[in-house]
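Need tokens for this chain, all 177 residues.
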Amino acid sequence: MRRRFVIEAVMVATYGHLLIPSRPIDYVVPYSSILELYDMRDGAEPVMDDPEDDAHVKSKIGELISFFEDPLNRKKIERAMQVPWRESSPLILNDRIQFTIVHAVDNAHYGEYFDPIETELLLTSSKLQIPLLSDQFEFQDKLLEARVPVQIYDIEDFEFAVEEGISIKDASQFGDS
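Here are the structure tokens for all 177 residues:
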């Protein structure tokens, strides 16, 4: 059975270990985070501090963009973009990894507390009842402060999340107490 995680597209390009999981994975990606890839690839701002790492990550971002622009994948994405909250058909990267693109719609549910991409990640995780992967400590802290009812894993805990993880049902026992 595939484990599903909501994630920003750039994190898949940035963290190589996400592309060699021990079990089959479905990365659920809000479409707006794919659009961010173009800005990161083409922008003057470095993605990484080290120039060598930056060049490598920008190369991986380019590869991911090419994958999403593949005619079959593009067609699947375009179909999903016709209706808010529609999920694309699976975009198969290899035998272990597939992507599902979601036409997430930022409805300002969390006001100005989260930026639009963060809001779409939260809403996607909440709506689909699947955990979120992130490397941003500030974002994780804000989630806890705001008591947003989503399950989140730090990127460093990826293998735990894949192998053992906590199901949404199990996480609900921790509630808002």
